[in-house]
Amino acid sequence: MNRSGEPTLIASVQRALRLLEVVGQHPGGITAKCLARNTGLALPTTYHLLRTLVHEGYLAKLDDGAFIVGDQVAGLHDAAQAQQLRSRIRGVMTELREDLNAAIYLARYHEGEVVVDAIVDSPRTPRVDAWVDFREAAHATAVGKCLLSGLSKDERTDHFRRYPPEDLTPRTITGLRELVERPTPALVTDTEEYSLGTACLAAPVEGSDSPATLALSFPARKLAATGDYVRPLRAAADEISRVLAVAGEYPNWN
After folding, report:
1. Which residues form the HTH iclR-type domain (predicted)?
2. Which one in 12, 56, 77, 84 has a CA-CA gap of 20 to 30 Å to 19?
3. CATH class of 79-247
4. pTM for this structure?
């Protein structure tokens, strides 16, 4: 900020951005002289900025001397789209957290593993204490069970071959026949199977190349209110499914 309270702006950055905007408006390319006329910049200044933008990969110079948008801009565009996609999904998750007063999870089954991509919680709605890696505890969590329900029996068998189910609490189901053969309902509940005192609910999310799920965790004492969670959870899962369908891809959360 300057003394007048206005933000301090860097004029050279503004000029460079203006050049990028004008180049982007000319798919076939535009010369330095035309750029100078379009932007009102002095020709020497235009050449100086163009050289810098070409060097950094934001512009490319064609054989005929015209300038076009460079690969770096395409990379920024892809990154911006991915960030917007993640932001929209987190917005749905945040709204669900506030509505249900519960921690919210987005997970998928990726390359043979349970991957929790995003968690939206708060001090008031803390996430479950992950005392056992979710990859090893798919049999005991609503998240894992929902994801495994999207696999074939052979794929589920392979998963449990790699991660044999173990008792995590007195309520944990470990029978392979039940875990592999028994159909899993569309809405999955974990009633203190992973952690005593904690219950979870998970719904499938469509639009991903691999099984995905939206889930929430809450104190087990609130199990009587599970019915109040069902419709909002399904609605949020459907909304994320629509977002993914429009985007045509599942975002990279790394």
Report:
1. 10-71
2. 84
3. alpha beta
4. 0.79
